[in-house]
């Protein structure tokens, strides 16, 4: 019996270790390329005068929120602190900034609010073109964006306060105490319900309504582009490209965000005894749902930016500039070597 217990315990430890390696690799991938993609989007908008529009400023805010989400992603720091013992102020600070969920809920909520704002802005622009007073003016968009960040911050105050270092982390899978974990969720049910309902379900309904109405106006009621002067084939291509973008935006947002909200709605509706009896399975599901949530910050720059010809041209210019810089650097290095060779002969 003792031998079988040791075997079982070692097997569990090996399985958890394998999960850690897999998730660390996945997080490293989405963080690396997500940071690059979002940084390029921000650079393109800042450097290109023609991109200084309300929609593109909102896209830049989305890219900034996604960039910060990936940089402070706790999935990168969870495993590193499993065997590190901290206490007091330093432990709480690390949990609030890195290993916990104090900063990223702000950036994620801001990203969700920005996505919904873009959807509403496009809905008003295409279906309510004569209601210009409802749209965000370009000279006021910065104040609106500041309001989004303030709203995101206020919505996460309970999360910020609750994130502290877990002094019993030796016996827990979470190095930090936080509402969004299997160990603490039952203490923060009202906050979890508010966040899941407001930033999960309601935001998805807003996206679904706006994009459904736009697609209906494109293909069924024909109220969008009905007076267009472009040729039929060109108009058809534009409609297909717009419809494809809107469909993918809604699908990716749902696939990435809703599983996390649904998972915690399921948790708070379940008994604690059930959670404890199925702790390991639910912990793995939690990690999968959380990874899906963060992967949305990886997909956004490609979904929003690469579907636009302006952004594609910006990507190409940046790539060509990098290639030109590398070519000039190689040329200068060769010239320098030639000059050194000539001096050596002298």
Helix fraction, binned, reads over 70%
Strand order of the largest sheet: 1-2
* Total helical elements: 11
The topology string of helices and strands comes to: HHHHHHEEHHHHH
Low-confidence stretches: 1-16
Shape: globular
Overall average pLDDT: 80
Distance, first to last CA: 83 Å
Q: What is the number of E strands?
A: 2
Question: What secondary-structure arrangement, pairings included, does this model have?
Answer:
Blueprint: H1 2-47, H2 54-71, H3 88-99, H4 104-127, H5 141-154, H6 157-162, E1 164-165, E2 176-177, H7 189-219, H8 232-268, H9 272-277, H10 279-305, H11 309-345
Antiparallel strand pairs: 1-2
Give a written overview of the molecule.
This protein is an all-alpha fold. It contains eleven helices and two strands. Strands 1-2 form a two-stranded antiparallel sheet. Helix 2 packs antiparallel against helix 10. The chain is globular, with a radius of gyration of 25 Å. The protein starts with a helix and ends with a helix. Mean pLDDT is 80; it is low at 1-16.
Provide the descriptors you would attach to this structure in a database record:
346 residues, disordered N terminus, two-stranded antiparallel ribbon, globular, mainly alpha, 2 strands
């Amino acid at each position: 019996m003792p031998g079988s217990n040791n075997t079982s315990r070692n097997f569990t430890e090996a399985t958890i270790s394998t999960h850690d390696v897999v998730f660390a690799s996945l997080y490293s991938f989405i963080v690396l390329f997500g940071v690059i993609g979002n940084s390029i989007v921000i650079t393109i908008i800042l450097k290109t005068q023609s991109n200084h529009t309300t929609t593109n400023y909102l896209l830049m805010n989305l890219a900034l929120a996604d960039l910060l989400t990936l940089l402070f992603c706790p999935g990168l720091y969870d495993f590193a602190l499993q065997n590190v013992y901290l206490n007091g102020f330093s432990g709480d600070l690390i949990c609030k900034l890195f290993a916990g969920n104090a900063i990223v809920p702000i950036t994620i909520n801001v990203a969700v609010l920005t996505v919904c704002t873009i959807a509403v802005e496009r809905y008003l622009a295409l279906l309510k073109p004569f209601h210009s007073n409802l749209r965000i003016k370009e000279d006021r968009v910065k104040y609106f964006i500041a309001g989004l960040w303030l709203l995101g911050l206020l919505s996460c105050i309970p999360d910020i306060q609750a994130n502290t270092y877990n002094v019993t982390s030796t016996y827990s899978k979470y190095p930090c105490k936080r509402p969004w974990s299997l160990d603490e969720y039952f203490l923060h049910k009202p906050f979890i319900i508010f966040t899941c309902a407001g930033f999960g379900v309601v935001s998805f309904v807003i996206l679904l309504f706006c994009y459904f109405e736009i697609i209906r106006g494109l293909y069924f009621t024909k109220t969008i582009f009905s007076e267009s002067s472009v040729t039929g084939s060109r108009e058809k291509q534009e409609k297909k490209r717009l419809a494809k973008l809107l469909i993918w935006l809604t699908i990716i947002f749902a696939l990435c965000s809703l599983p996390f909200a649904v998972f915690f709605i399921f948790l708070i509706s379940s008994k604690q005894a059930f959670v404890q009896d199925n702790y390991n399975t639910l912990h793995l599901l939690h990690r999968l749902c959380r990874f899906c949530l963060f992967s949305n910050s990886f997909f956004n720059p490609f979904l929003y930016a690469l579907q636009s010809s302006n952004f594609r041209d910006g990507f190409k210019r940046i790539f060509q500039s990098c290639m030109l810089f590398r070519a000039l650097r190689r040329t200068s290095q060769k010239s320098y070597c030639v000059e050194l060779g000539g001096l050596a002969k002298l």
